[in-house]
Design a protein that fits this description.
7 helices, single chain, mainly alpha
Length: 158
Amino acid sequence: MLKTRRDAERVRDECKEMVTKRALVSGGASAIPVPGPDAIADVAILLEMIPEINRRFELSPEQIDGLPPSLKAVVYAMIKKTGMGLAGKVVTKQLVLQVLKGVAGRVAVKQAAKFVPIVGNAVSAAIGFGAMKYVGNQHVDDCFDVCIKLIESAEVEV
């Protein structure tokens, strides 16, 4: 596990930068005036991005499984209390689709906006960017919170 708050903050900042880059790709895919490719891109981006964030925070299923049983139980309990609860999970297409349903209102507006020429593409791109950034940053914040709680609990035990 990450040892210090500074380590966790560094990983958080790196992950938020990665989220912004991936959100730009999502926004670009959303600007394509045909409904469909953007949704495929969003799923593909999240299938790659969420596990990478987990790995960087040392919260992938494999990393957690390597912990002592007592610490593993604490980590899973903390993850369960966080927002989206994607840390420590094997990320599947079904899980990603479930997350996207959580931002379904934005996605529906994005799809409808594609039918309005020019301005609709820009609106769709902005919504695609915003939705991806929201999901990614929320997951980063959840992972950061879990790490900080673990770091603080380790300091109390010492």
